[in-house]
């Protein structure tokens, strides 16, 4: 007997024996719900035997038998009623626990999100892939069988999704392609660092999604609820189903603001801001301009995060402003980094350390933000230095720029596409899924060990497009990804350390050293960031014009 907790109200288990009931009572269960018909197997105890043991142990028992593989909508409704009427917590059982987990999933589908249901059952060891459409449909059996079908379905209309669509059309114009994304607005997120420093206006970083979807590509304005890769299907909110021949998954990642206690309530006020949100980046600049003295904290959570340099970019540009307006001598800058190094590629660290010294900033490694009290201007960090007990410290602040914890989107983490950590599981060279060979992934959501940046997506889009077209033509992948990513580290207004690197921290500069030495702060790199890259993004990358991003053709080994 091994009960698996699904929620505070219910656990499920394989077949129990009368002798197990006393132990269940000691575990705190108050009711037993039997979902296995009597006589299903010769060696199973009858419900009458379980009921007698339950009464002897002071527990309530109920019989709700379900034939294996035949869970009806009414069965799920009856299970839901039993959960309400029985004293909790409840232990539900069948032969393996799967029927009970399925009944719970369908019973709560009207009240819980599909990702929450799939996450809870997955954690308990039960795969609900077989009823995912019913879960998405509020626990009811879907009646709509009119599935749309496309050659290629792209999940996500961000930088990666639109770029790969354009790159596909450039290679094979007759493809029938659909992009799935519920958003109305598309953002140029690399610009938000500049918004937070008063260099860009926020409005210049946003365009309507409809204006950017490539001509001829279908835009389905809906969120994805679940994947059925064995059936080549994507289930949308509302239980509509989109079928595909090939799938590209690139919905980005999730900013998990709720993981820091008190953060959501204070964002955008009380001196707490973040350049990771369109509406908050202007507040960063407002705070920087207004701060004349006090303490400014800049936080960085555990990896992985998108644009790993962004937390310190905000610190450098803020420090530069305070240096220029004479306030720096009265401001205590602290970089609170959950990691143990300033930057993951050592070649760029000396230049960055010089700016840390210039702004007299203190580096606090292994400090992970866990809670904030905005009105009290206090933050708490868990300090997790190697080989030492975790220590929680309190730090007061006048301004705090927060980089939130980041995870894969919920509907990805609970899907069959994800690895153990929740990211889409791909071959890091071809970006093809390791199990499903008609699925590719790129951008922030996949698990290749590269930096999660727009520059990485710019390089990945043509590679995925080429390899997908290769697959259509029946050949092996001819384009390989080397892990390229770029992080323009804005160390002062007018100068940037242009970090460009690939797998293993290998330097991958786009320009000759005599033209632009990325390990040193340069004006040329600033011009690239401020004046050249935004139009390259809007007018080249999103339109399939692969400037400095054409994949090298590699013959299959």
UniProtKB/TrEMBL annotation:
Required cofactor(s):
FAD
Q: Which GO-annotated molecular functions does the record name? A: FAD binding; hydrolase activity; quinone binding; sulfide:quinone oxidoreductase activity
Keywords of the record, alphabetical order, are: FAD, Flavoprotein, Oxidoreductase, Quinone, Transit peptide
GO biological process terms, alphabetically, are: sulfide oxidation, using sulfide:quinone oxidoreductase
Task: Offer one Pfam family short name for this entry.
Answer: Pyr_redox_2
**Which InterPro entries is this protein grouped with?**
BLH_phosphatase-like, FAD/NAD-bd_sf, FAD/NAD-binding_dom, Prot-tyrosine_phosphatase-like, Sulphide_quinone_reductase
Using the record's annotation, list all stretches that form the Beta-lactamase hydrolase-like protein phosphatase-like domain. 5-109
Determine if Protein transport is one of this entry's keywords.
no
Designated name of the protein = Sulfide:quinone oxidoreductase
FAD/NAD(P)-binding domain boundaries: 150-263
The protein's organism comes out as: Thalassovita taeanensis
């Amino acid at each position: 007997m091994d009960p698996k907790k699904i929620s505070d109200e219910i656990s499920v288990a394989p077949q129990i024996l009368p002798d197990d009931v006393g132990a269940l009572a000691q575990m705190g269960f108050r009711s037993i719900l039997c979902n296995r018909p009597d006589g299903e197997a010769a060696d199973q105890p009858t419900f009458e035997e379980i009921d007698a043991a339950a009464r002897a142990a002071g527990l309530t028992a109920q019989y709700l038998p379900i034939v294996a593989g035949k869970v009806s909508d009414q069965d799920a409704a009856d299970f839901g009623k039993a959960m309400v009427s029985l004293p909790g917590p409840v232990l539900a059982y069948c032969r393996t626990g799967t029927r009970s987990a399925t009944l719970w999933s369908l019973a709560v589908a009207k009240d819980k999100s599909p990702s929450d249901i799939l996450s809870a059952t997955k954690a308990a060891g039960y795969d609900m892939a077989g009823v995912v459409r019913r879960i998405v449909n509020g626990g009811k059996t879907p009646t709509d069988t009119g599935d749309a079908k496309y050659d290629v379905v792209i999940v996500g209309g961000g930088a990666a999704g639109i770029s790969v669509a354009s790159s596909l059309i450039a290679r094979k114009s007759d493809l029938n392609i659909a992009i799935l994304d519920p958003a109305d607005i598309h953002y140029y997120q690399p610009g938000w660092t500049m918004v937070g420093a008063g260099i860009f206006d926020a409005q210049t970083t946003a365009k309507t999604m409809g204006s950017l979807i490539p001509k001829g590509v279908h835009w389905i304005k809906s969120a994805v609820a679940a994947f059925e890769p064995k059936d080549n299907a994507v289930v949308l909110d509302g239980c509509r189903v989109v079928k595909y021949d090939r799938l590209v998954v690139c919905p980005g990642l999730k900013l998990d603001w709720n993981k820091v206690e008190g953060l959501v309530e204070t964002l955008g006020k009380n001196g707490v801001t973040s350049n990771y949100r369109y509406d908050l980046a202007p507040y960063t600049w407002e705070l920087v301009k207004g701060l004349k003295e006090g303490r400014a904290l800049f936080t960085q959570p555990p990896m992985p995060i998108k644009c790993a340099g962004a937390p310190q970019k905000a610190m450098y540009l803020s420090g530069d402003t305070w240096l220029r307006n004479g306030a720096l001598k009265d401001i205590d800058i602290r970089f609170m980094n959950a990691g143990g190094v300033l930057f993951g590629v050592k070649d760029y660290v000396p230049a960055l350390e010089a700016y840390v010294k210039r702004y007299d900033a203190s580096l606090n490694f292994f400090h992970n933000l866990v809670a904030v009290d905005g009105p009290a201007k206090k933050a708490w960090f868990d300090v997790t230095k190697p080989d030492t007990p975790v220590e929680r410290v309190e730090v007061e602040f006048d301004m705090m720029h927060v980089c939130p914890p980041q995870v894969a989107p919920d509907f990805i983490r609970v899907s069959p596409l994800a690895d153990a950590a929740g990211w889409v599981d791909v071959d890091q060279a071809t970006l093809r899924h390791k199990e499903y060979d008609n699925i590719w992934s790129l951008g922030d959501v996949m698990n290749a060990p590269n930096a999660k940046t727009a520059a990485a997506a710019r390089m990945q889009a043509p590679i995925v497009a080429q390899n997908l077209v290769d697959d259509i033509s029946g050949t092996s992948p001819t384009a390989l990804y080397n892990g390229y990513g770029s992080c323009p580290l804005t160390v002062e207004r007018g100068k940037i350390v242009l970090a460009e690197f690939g797998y293993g921290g290998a330097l991958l500069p786009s320009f000759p050293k005599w033209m632009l030495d990325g390990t040193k702060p340069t004006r040329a790199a600033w011009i690239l960031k401020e004046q050249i890259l935004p139009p390259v993004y809007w007018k080249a990358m999103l339109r399939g014009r692969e400037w400095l991003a054409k994949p090298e053709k590699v013959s299959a080994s």
